[in-house]
Design goal:
The chain is α/β, with parallel strands linked by helices. 48% of the residues lie in helices and 11% in strands. It folds into five domains: 199 residues, P-loop containing nucleotide triphosphate hydrolases (Rossmann fold); 196 residues, Rossmann fold (3-Layer(aba) Sandwich); 104 residues, Arc Repressor Mutant, subunit A (Orthogonal Bundle); 73 residues, HRDC domain (DNA polymerase, domain 1, Orthogonal Bundle); 106 residues, Orthogonal Bundle (Arc Repressor Mutant, subunit A). About 3% of the residues have low confidence.
Length: 729
């Protein structure tokens, strides 16, 4: 086909005078009858690669697409270039019999150029039989990564497409994807039986996108509100992993004057379409969504994409961030990261088949590597997609937080060697926490039971902190010298590469990145380099006062105020009881009971040191949370079974426990003795109570270790709720 024909067709149907990126070469390959594979980043113009050839050729092109919303968008767009609506149709479960008959009639009459089908509809025998008799120009498989279990959106029904296409007709096939690592590409071509395909791969670099990862604190919603307010009147997407979190974040934004709507698969189709249209029509600025939102949403001026929760794979992350700045204007990609979220995702995998766990785990480790890397994030991301990036001269070279603020590094070769030796000497049977405890010489029940504390290597790394070793362990995990075992959840093993390292160590530059300050479990506990720094002098005074108050009342210090609450006091400087209730983890009850001395101390400190107190953003709480709190208090007073309370509120049992913990931490009493009496006898309760009286921290993990499996997690959590309620409130 002559070049002039392609360009005049582009102008005629779409009004463009030139092609974008690799579009022209891809279209030429398909029109010449070749099997074709196009790998283009989100926003690279993939759909044009099959829409234009379909409009130019005889017959109907079949487009296999995974999402009904995406099909509808594209059909509407194509119908806009023709007087006859029959030019493009969908064939899926949303149609009634009359509509299906109309679609088939238009195809038979040669009117329909593009037929969008879901894979589930394509496998139906009556559809295969009908399509066999029609003139098919080619088959396009959009979002082809759905074929590969290594892709971010694997769909088993995609695996059978090769056989279905062969049954319909011997026509060229084009596969298109926006995210494909070399492993995924290979899998797609093999599964489609297209090893002969002409492959086109565009650069995955989006130079106009700025990448930033911030530590996720308890106040993440507050951080999000501050960020979104800088983009007033501009469009943005906030991704969360659960529907519950989507609703919660959308509500907090609305209450704080930001025009936002939720979007997830739990909403009915009518509401989803309405919210999507409100976003496209700019009646709202922000959509808070699960990954159900965004595929095929071609809004060019999305100015920011925020990940409230880190996604399950870098493919997902790339796909979702790629929805920003499609007009080549500014696109800010901000992800909030806590290792705790990664552990949660790993726990969700525990019940799945081992092969699936291995895939999921490998993908997660890449995400951890990206979040914790100190190198150029763009370079890390592009390397993952098999592309080299020049971080000095490449387009967008300074467009990420690490490049703008390089972090200090130091040589950690000897420490890495010591860590790997320790894992080998302890017979590769420990999880990260035990490895760190062995290195720093911190005895606990598990180490004592294995007699590790009696070994000569115990405590060999004690000149460095547990925080240091945990941070190093995670950086070493990313380099594949060690790995986490899937079968025995979380146990660390040394890889072949790691064993070679012990024999012949090479340079290992560890990043001194204490934006991520973590506890012994690798959970981020504070974020001192982000926003204000903790006032160390005031913190010491508050801790001393807390100790005195705790001693006078005969309770552990954390029962008065927990550390995060003291941290927040040093940032907000509350000088009244009302202001104290805006501090993290302090409810009205707690403020009234313990607050007087604390606010008096802070007021004196502020005056003596001439401190200018920040006008802090107060995130108003939603009515839903307070009505849930009230309902839990009333139902426990009525002594209703906790399982029934959880069910009536649509909560998992562990979510109810978390809500109850929040209630008592804020200073309200909760009576759950009736439930505890059924699961623990008097002696057991007394034993746990005594432990909490003497405990130095409120960590349930520490309590689990102390009791070495005598009690399960829920039992200890419930006892802690009873303890705080009775002793601290």
């Amino acid at each position: 086909m002559k070049e002039i024909d392609l360009h005049s067709a582009l102008k005629k149907y779409f009004g463009f005078s030139k092609f974008k990126g690799l579009q022209e070469e891809v279209i030429k390959s398909l029109v010449a009858g070749n099997n074709t594979f196009a790998i283009m980043p989100t926003g690279g113009g993939k759909s044009m690669c099959y829409q234009l050839p379909a409009l130019m050729q005889e017959g109907t092109a079949i487009v296999v697409s995974p999402l009904i919303a995406l099909m509808k968008n594209q059909v509407d767009a194509i119908r806009g270039v023709s007087d006859n609506d029959g030019i493009a149709h969908v064939l899926n479960s949303s149609l009634n019999r009359g509509q299906i008959a109309q679609v088939k009639e238009d195809i038979e009459n040669g009117i329909t150029k593009l037929l969008y089908v879901a894979p589930e509809s394509l496998v139906k025998e009556e559809n295969v039989e009908f399509l066999k008799k029609q003139n098919i120009s080619f088959v396009a498989i959009d979002e082809a990564h759905c074929i590969s279990e290594w892709g971010h959106d694997f769909r088993p029904e995609y695996r059978n497409l090769k056989n279905i296409i062969s049954a319909i007709d011997d026509v060229p096939v084009i596969g298109l994807t926006a995210t494909a690592t070399p492993k995924v590409q290979e899998d797609i071509l093999k599964t489609l039986g297209m090893s002969d395909a002409t492959t086109f791969k565009a650069s995955f670099n989006r130079p106009n996108l700025f990448y930033e990862v911030r530590p996720k604190t308890e106040d993440v919603n507050k951080d999000i509100i501050r960020f979104v307010r800088q983009y007033e009147g501009k469009s943005g997407i906030i991704y969360c992993l659960s529907r519950k979190k989507v609703e919660e974040v959308a509500q907090v934004l609305q209450i704080n004057g930001i025009k936002a709507v939720p979007y997830h698969a739990g909403l009915d189709a009518k509401t989803r379409i309405k919210h999507q249209d409100m976003f496209l029509m700019e009646d709202v600025d922000v959509v808070v969504a699960t990954i159900a939102f965004g595929m095929g949403i071609d809004k060019p001026d999305v100015r920011f994409v925020i990940h409230h929760d880190i996604p399950k794979s870098l493919e997902s992350y790339y796909q979702e961030t790629g929805r920003a700045g499609r007009d080549d204007g500014e696109g800010y990609c901000l992800a909030f990261y806590a290792y705790k979220d990664i552990e949660k995702l790993e726990k969700f995998m525990a019940g799945k088949p081992v092969a699936e766990q291995e895939v999921g785990h490998a993908l997660l480790q890449e995400v951890v590597g990206y979040a914790e890397t100190s190198m150029s994030r763009r370079k890390y991301l592009l390397h993952y997609f098999g592309e080299d990036f020049d971080e000095v001269n490449g387009l967008g070279a300074d467009m990420d937080d690490n490049t703008r603020n390089p972090k200090k590094k130091h040589e950690a070769k000897e420490d890495v060697k010591l860590m790997i030796e320790t894992i080998l000497l302890t017979k590769e049977k420990y999880k990260p926490k035990e490895i760190v405890n062995t290195l720093v010489g911190n005895e606990n029940a598990m180490l004592i039971s294995h007699k590790t504390n009696e070994q000569p290597f115990f405590g060999k790394g004690k000149e460095k902190s547990a925080h240091y070793w945990m941070a190093l362990l995670r950086q070493v995990l990313v380099t594949n010298l060690i790995r986490k075992e899937i079968e025995q959840y979380g146990v660390v093993k040394v890889t072949e590469k790691g064993k070679q390292y012990v024999e012949k160590p090479f340079s290992f530059m560890m990043t001194e990145d204490h934006k991520y300050e973590t506890d012994d479990d690798g959970v981020i506990i504070s974020t001192k380099s982000q926003g204000g720094a903790v006032d160390e002098k005031l913190m010491k005074m508050l801790k001393d006062l807390r100790k005195r108050v705790a001693k006078r009342l005969g309770v552990p210090p954390f029962a008065v105020f927990q550390d995060p609450s003291l941290d927040d006091m040093t940032l907000k400087y509350p000088i009244t009881i009302t202001e104290l209730t805006n501090v993290y983890g302090v409810g009205e009850g707690k403020a009234r009971k313990f607050g007087k001395q604390f606010v008096e101390l802070i007021a004196t400190y502020v005056e003596e040191n001439d401190i200018l107190r920040p006008e802090d953003l107060v995130v108003k709480s939603t009515g839903v949370n307070s009505s849930l709190k009230l309902s839990i208090i009333q139902n426990t007073d009525k002594k209703l079974p906790l399982e029934d309370i959880a069910k009536s509120k649509g909560l998992e049992f562990n979510e109810l426990i978390e809500e109850m913990q929040r209630i008592v931490t804020m200073g309200t009493k909760l009576n759950i003795s009736y439930h505890i009496d059924e699961i623990l006898d008097e002696d057991q309760q007394e034993e746990i109570f005594e432990y909490f009286m003497e405990a130095e921290s409120d960590s349930i993990e520490d309590a689990m270790e102390e009791f070495d499996g005598d009690y399960d997690y829920d039992e200890l959590q419930l006892m802690q709720i009873k303890f705080i309620s009775e002793v601290a409130n």
